[in-house]
Structure formats: structure tokens, C-alpha cells
Amino acid sequence: VAIVGAGPTGLAAAYFLAQDGHAATLIDRHESAGGSLRAVDPDLLLPDVLDQELALLSRLGILFRFKTKLGRDIALENLLAEFDVVLLATGELPKGEESIPGVPSIGASIDADPDTFRTRLSRLFAAGSAVRPLRQLVKAMAEGKNAAHCISQVLDGKDVRRPAKPFSSLMGRLSGDELKTFVKGANPDGPVTLSNARTRFSRIESASEAARCLHCDCRASGNCALQRYGGIYDVDLARFRGQRRSFEQHIQPGGVVFEPGKCILCGICVRLTELAAEPLGLTFIGRGFNVRVATPFNRTIEQGLQRVAAECVKHCPTGALAFAEKKPSEGV
């Protein structure tokens, strides 16, 4: 596979193609690889990390051709004659360049199927900002990964389709009161700053700075039964869209975090507290659509989970019950 453009999209595509066992050659008009990754703040030390990553790509067998511009130093038809597949990951075309000779385009963008990355030429693919502007590097790299997936399908003789997006339930925009609840989980420690004499954080400082980030994602991410079965049964969240639950987060002194909005009323935690003969335990309160899981007599979740908190967290299918992460000073 020839990949034209050794920026974030092209580099990601080459890596994942190599992982799938396909030979990849990166072709770029610059003197080195990296593209927009080279334009970041040099104080972030990204160039050093980038060079190490590029060395890893070379060890995987990925080849590089620099100072080679498509349409000037090499023609598209020559690439298609030399390689089984060509992926265009050139980034946005510079002003004044309306198109690349021989490449199907719409204005200044390459015309490619959004589901397969294929252009009207069957062995020519395109991805990244060459197709549509991508302002975030992580999205550009994700497109490279997805394009590699589709190209691997072609080379393996399979039907071509971009990977399906995993089932995801989004919380949406928070109200003012909900936001106040959300930011209570922020680490009260101030930011860690570097002096002029130092250019790197220590391990403890790095962990402390990272711990200041709010927990915007789900604590059950990657291990959520709702997400898994939502994908298996092709659940459409918009089909029965109603008013979303209010965001609530109860952080108990014992380290248990309870988010009622994620509770699907499966009853596992209620049953576990019954089996363990918890003094209070958990129970269902209310009727109909207003049923919720809580501790009787308006007590806290911590008071209801004196014996089997760990078991309830372990078996909660959606992360409605979870443990708060430890602070760096308590052990990472």
C-alpha cells in the first residue's frame, strides 16, 4: 500500500496496515514525517516522542520516501501501477491547488465514500483532511486507522465497510445546577508548574496533574454490559427519545461513587445486599417510571453498603456504582 502524506492520518494508517500484515510505504513532499504534528509547541517535547514513534514504524518494516510530491515528482497512474492500493492522506490542499491531477475531487477536497474511504477509482482511497477538514489530531489519526481497516478488507478479499461505531449514551449539555454537582469531583490541588531549570514532570507530579482532570467519561467504559448489548442488538437511542435523567453524583466518604442516571434498575445490588444481610442495604423506592435504587430511610449509599460495596461495584453492569480513583498521594 502506498500512503501519500506522512502526517497523523497517514502515519496511523501505515501502523495499522503493518499490524494487519500489509506492506506500507509512506510518501511525503517534506524532508521528514510528521506533518501537522511538527507544528505543535516545541516545549511539549512532542518532536522527541514523534521521532521515537517514527523509528518504531521503521522497525515494523514501513518504508518512507521523502521530497516526493504527487503530481510533480510522481504521477498517480505510476503509483497505482506500482502498488496494489493507494491511500491519499495529504491533508488539506494548499491554497491555489484546486486538485491533484487524476484524483476525483469536489472543489479542494477529494471525493471519497465516507463509509469505505474509496474514491471512484477502485484502488484509490482517501482519508483525513484531504476529504474533509479535521481540526483535532486524534480524529485525524482515527480516520487513518479506519481507512487502514477498509484497505485491509480489500486486500483480504472481504466486503469493504468502515468499523461500526460502538454504542454510546451521551449525557449531553449540563444545566447550571448539574454542572455545580459535576465540578465537585474536581481535584482541589492546584496545577503543577515547571521551573526554567526543569523540562519534565516527575512521575508523582505527572500523576497529580493528570488527576486534576474531571471524570467526563464513564467509569465502566470498556466493561459496560449496556454498551455491549446495545451494540449486539443495534440499539437506536433516538427511537424512544425522552427527557434525559438529571445528572446526580453521590460521592461517599468510603470511596463509592453512585450515579443514579446510569442505573438500569437491574436489581443486582439490591439482591447482593439481601444475601449479605446488610443492616440497611439497598432497595427499590417509588412506583412505575419513578422507581429508583436507594438506601432505605433516606440514608447514604455508604450506610447501605457496609459489607458488600466491592461486590456491588464489581457486578454493576453500567458503572452506576463505582470506586473513586485514588489521589496520587494515596498511590496511583
Question: Could you explain the architecture of this structure?
Answer:
The protein has helices at residues 8-19, 46-59, 76-82, 137-155, 176-183, 203-210, 225-232, 268-275, 301-304, 309-315; strands at residues 2-4, 25-27, 63-65, 86-88, 105-106, 109-110, 124-126, 250-251, 256-258, 283-285, 292-294, 321-323. It is an alpha/beta fold. The strands form four sheets. It has a five-stranded parallel β-sheet with strand order 3-2-1-4-7, covered by helices on one side. It has a three-stranded antiparallel β-sheet with strand order 8-9-12, covered by helices on one side. The chain has a two-stranded antiparallel ribbon with strand order 5-6. Helix 2 links the parallel strand 2 (25-27) and strand 3 (63-65). The longest helix is centred in the middle third of the chain and has 19 residues, at 137-155. The two termini are 42 Å apart.
Fold blueprint:
Blueprint: E1 2-4, H1 8-19, E2 25-27, H2 46-59, E3 63-65, H3 76-82, E4 86-88, E5 105-106, E6 109-110, E7 124-126, H4 137-155, H5 176-183, H6 203-210, H7 225-232, E8 250-251, E9 256-258, H8 268-275, E10 283-285, E11 292-294, H9 301-304, H10 309-315, E12 321-323
Parallel strand pairs: 1-2, 1-4, 2-3, 4-7
Antiparallel strand pairs: 5-6, 8-9, 9-12, 10-11
Helix pairs in contact: 1-4, 8-10
